[in-house]
Structures are given as structure tokens and as C-alpha cells.
Amino acid sequence: MRRSLLDRLLARSLVRVGLLVLGAIVLAALLAPVLAPDAAIDCHLEAELLGPSWEHLLGTDADGCDIAGLLAHGAGLSLRVGVSVVAFSSVLGTLIGLLAGMAGGWVDRVVMLLLEVAQSFPGFLVALSILAVAPRPSVGLVIAALCVSGWVGYARLVRGQTLLVREADYVTAARAGGFTEIRIALREVLPNVLSPVVVQATFGLAGAILAEAGLSFLGLGVPPGTPSWGAMLHQGRSYLLVAPWLSIIPGVAIALIVMAFNFVGDALRDALDPTLLGSEGLGP
Q: Please, what are the domains in the chain?
């Protein structure tokens, strides 16, 4: 029998590693309010720049804050930003791409012009510019700034898939049956263009988390005092010679979560590829 999607994913060792890393990060983010409720405020200057020990497993920063607690709270922030950006961008981009692909004509031309203009500006620089002129930084503003350009890739992807699917026989049969274009788009076309969207969303999570860390590292992300992996990197750069763990620990955390999402995204892309599915045969 053809193997299920989950079986095909778990058959790859890198996926298992990625899911294990993501599970550990999600668990740390969920338990952070319980295990380290005051990580960002319960700091003691007399304990500044302490190395890893039993009392502080990952050491302390220049303000005497426990790095393990900050790291756990920063995981929650990174996941919240990543999920929010991908959720909004994927939904908006999917709807716009679906509209352009189904409507065609002048609607498609206008949408494509809009996409070309939006893609001419790098998304990170757009977010950087918005946050640079913002009067007050906030997590919501970071999410909004990353969403300004985040939807473009999804719209282009869904439009291309829609142009292929709308010519399929079952779509033609639905039109012959008298169904409206809206029903055809939502019931016949949309479910068949979601697979590549899911794959791109997985990579988008890694991109959004990396972008938030970059903005926070530059001092234009979350408000000061908010636990963030990028902000931890920003602080640690001043103490590389005396306390290298301040930069190494959040840097490793960012690298791990980005690689984990990329591992899962690569496996999803292969598992959802219809050409690979067709060559799988009837093996176990």
C-alpha cells in the first residue's frame, strides 16, 4: 500500500531531528511562564556575566538575568511572530492569488503589476524602513512590518497553481454543472493548490523568525526589555571576549530553529510532490 504522508516524512532522519528540535523549542516556550516567570525582570547585578553553572544552567547576561529563562521566553516570542506573519501572509496571498488566477483578464494584470512592484523592494528592507520611522516599537508592529511584503510570494505561487488547476477536467465539469465561479474557486480549485502553500509556509516560518531576530539585533524590533533572541545577540556582541556564551547560545538557538523548519519543509516538498507519489509503487 502507498505510505501515508506521516510515514513518508518520518522515514527521513533529518525530519525526525527537525521535529525533535521544534518539539523541544515549543515545549520550552510553553513552560517558560511556569519555569521562569520573572526571567526578564528578576535580574541581579551582582550575578552579572556568570558562566554556566547548576544555579544558572546557561549563565547570566550583563544585567544578571538568567539566560535559560530569557531563551525560553524568546522562543515564545519567535514562534508567535513566525506563526502570526505566516498565517496572515499565507491567507492574504492565497486569496489574492486565487482571485487573479480565476478572474484573469484585467484583474490578473493589475494583480501581477502589484506583485511586480512589491517584489522590487526587499521585504527585510521594507520592514526595516517601517520600524525605523515608527514612534514606538512593539511586537505587533514587527509582525505588521513583516506582513507588508510577506504575502507576495504566496500570491504569486497560488496564482500560478490556479492557472493550471482551473483548466482541469473536474473544474470544466463543475462549470458545466452550473456552479458559480466562487464555489468552483473555493470547493474545486483551492483544495488542490494548498499543498505548495503549506510547503512555502514551513519555509516562511523560518524566514519570519530569522527576520525578527535580525530586526531585534539592529535595535529596531521588539521593545527594550522584551526577551528576544536577536536582542540577546545584540547585547552579547559587546562581551564576545569575556562572555562568549551571550552570543553563542542565542545564535545556536536561531540556527537550530531555522534548520529544523527547513528540514521539515524540504521533506514536505518531496512528500507532497505528485511525481514522486506516482513513482512510489505499492511497496510497504
A: 12-278 (1.10.3720.10)
